Amino acid sequence: MTLIVALDASSSACSAALLRRQEGSPDEVIARFAQTPREHTRRLLPMVDEVLAEAGVAASELDAVAYGRGPGSFTGLRIAAGVAQGLAYGLDRPLVGVSTLEALALGGHLRHRYRYMVTALDARMGEIYVGAWRVEDGRPLALMDEAVLPPERLVLPREHEDHDWVGLGSGWALWDQMPAEIQASLNLTVTDVDPAAEDMVRLAVEIFAAGDAQRPHDAQPVYLRDQVAWKKTERKARS
Questions:
Q1: Residue range 91-137, pLDDT digits in tens
Q2: Which of 129, 139, 177, 186 could form a disulfide with 71 if both were Cys (CB 3.0 to 4.6 A apart)?
């Protein structure tokens, strides 16, 4: 049996979920989700306690701890990473970081059977965090590197332009700033959806099974904007 708990605070929502996997049975997921702006620190651990209690599982029985590694709210990512690292250290368990953009795509597929998706989160400062996905065998496959960019610079992966695309996430509230070809390519956009631990824990169990979990002190949130700034600095140093 495999037991993994996941938690997320990458957006205005706060969530936690526990997955129980037993051979010969469907995965069981118990989840909590709430819109709690500015209350993540207060709500996150109680949510974890609730899903453990409902499952009748002690924290010491967990095989791994997962969290939404980003991209997303800088403060929220730090809160989730800190709580997850604290749990993993205390339990001497590995930590699994899960992409918030991939979790959005998995949620879109599980609930609505979408297959081609562009997930985008509002990054503030006139930019979006974005990724593009194709679902195969129930798992989102990345069609582009996750990026932070102005909405007017968004392009679809060329080899997949002719498919029925769906836009998911708060970044699509900037629809009027998207290029005309993007607007013409999307059948549907849904802005009122946030990353959720319920989807992250389903991704985390596969990462864990593949042996790709990390030691707690090696795990780092993914901010993307910091990576862009670092690359710009590196290019200047080389020139």
A1: 999 999 999 999 999 999 999 999 999 999 999 999 999 999 999 99
A2: 129
Residue 134 to residues 109, 148, 239: CA-CA distances in angstroms?
10, 20, 38
pTM exceeds 0.85: yes
CB 27 within 8 A of CB 202: yes
- Predicted pLDDT of residue 218: 81
- Dump the DSSP string for the chain: -EEEEEEE-SSSEEEEEEEEE-TTS--EEEEEEEE-TT-HHHHHHHHHHHHHHHHT--GGG-SEEEEEEESS-HHHHHHHHHHHHHHHHHHT--EEEEEHHHHHHHHHHHHH---EEEEEEEEETTEEEEEEEEEETTEEEESS--EEE-GGG----GGGTTS-EEEESGGGGGGGGS-HHHHHHEEEEE-S----HHHHHHHHHHHHHTT--B-GGG-----SHHHHHHHHHHHHHH-
Tokens of 65: 């701890």
pLDDT classification of 226: cutoffs 50, 70, 90: low
Asked whether 119 and 105 are in contact (CB, 8 A), the reply is yes
